[in-house]
What we know:
Shape: elongated
Oligomer: single chain
Helix content: 25-40%
Amino acid sequence: PPPPSPPPFLCGxxxxxxxxxxxxxDKALYxxxxxxxxxxxxxxxxxxxxxxxxxxxxxxVALDFPGECSQCGPEPPSSPPSPPPSPPSLPLPPSLPPPPPPSLPPPPSPP
Length: 111
């Protein structure tokens, strides 16, 4: 018989599976918070409220623990498309010569 197929990726990616066993520790309180994978599974369980579907649980753990579990979250948005090219610019009209200086009034005539 063929070998059994490998289990599906936890959050749909090999990158997340690579960090699923990464330990999460609250360094301020010296608490072991489990692993990325354990947190994801916990959020889906009734003990963890059970309100999270797999994808939502993956995203939440990635957001809550970005340093350790970010690979389990949503893929970063792709770069925005480049703007369309600008229309060709129209040629400018030829320059006009500067206006002449204003004329001065004639000097007063002697009395």
